[in-house]
Amino acid sequence: MGKRKVPGLNASSTADISFILLIFFLVTTSMDTDRGLAVRLPNPPEENQQDPPKIRERNSMIVNVNMNNQIMVTIAKEPREIQVSELRELAKEFIANPEDKADLPEKVAVELPAPFGVQMITKNHVISLQTDRATSYDTYFQVENELYGAYNDLRDELARKTFGRPYRECTEDEQLACRQYYKCVISEAEPRKYNQ
């Protein structure tokens, strides 16, 4: 009896099948995307724009982060070095000025949406964030997270006190009223190279 010949595999369509599988997995797989901070950028400057108004010292909080990732906060000409973990509470006290201290932002009467009406708030405050070009991204994001977190905490406390529920569960109008009460004013200067 003669040897039986083993039939060979037809590999002509293997490349086509591999290509179709590759396309299938690319289409159905979710890709990780980089996520950044949701920040509303200012409008481009107008041609005949006036100089910005002067900000009183008591209304400004300057947060400096140096090349060694150390944080220096200056309020009313009083600089002090702090840790990231201390920044949120310090910013909350600065923004709200609950005891109406003379070295924190002055309160002015402002007409706010219902149910607030006319309230005494720190309308003219500003938090200035200044970094060095060598500041690490991690430290920068932690600092920015604490500053935005201070506003979020204050809005949440206000919503619970006024509407009896957390800020995220409020209606759009209620959230808008809370945002008007604690308007987020964070100014970010372009990073600089400081001589340390």
Structure description:
The protein has four helices and seven strands. By secondary structure, the chain is α/β, with parallel strands linked by helices. It has a domain at 58-188: Nucleotidyltransferase, domain 5. The strands form two sheets. It has a five-stranded mixed β-sheet with strand order 3-2-1-6-7, covered by helices on one side. Strand 2 (71-75) and strand 3 form a beta hairpin. 18% of the residues are buried.
How would the blueprint of this fold be written?
Layout: H1 14-28, E1 60-65, E2 71-75, E3 78-82, H2 84-96, E4 108-112, E5 117-121, E6 126-131, H3 137-163, H4 172-181, E7 186-188
Parallel strand pairs: 1-6, 6-7
Antiparallel strand pairs: 1-2, 2-3, 4-5
Helix pairs in contact: 2-3, 3-4
Percent in strands: 15-25%
> What is the makeup of the main sheet?
5 strands, mixed
- Poorly predicted runs are none
CATH level-1 class of the domain at 58-188? Alpha Beta
CA distance, first residue to last residue: 92 Å
- Overall mean pLDDT stands at 86
- Could you give the order of strands across the largest sheet? 3-2-1-6-7
Order of helical and strand elements: HEEEHEEEHHE
Q: In terms of quaternary structure, what is this? A: single chain
- What is the annotated CATH architecture of the domain at 58-188? 2-Layer Sandwich
Helix content: 25-40%
Label the overall shape. elongated
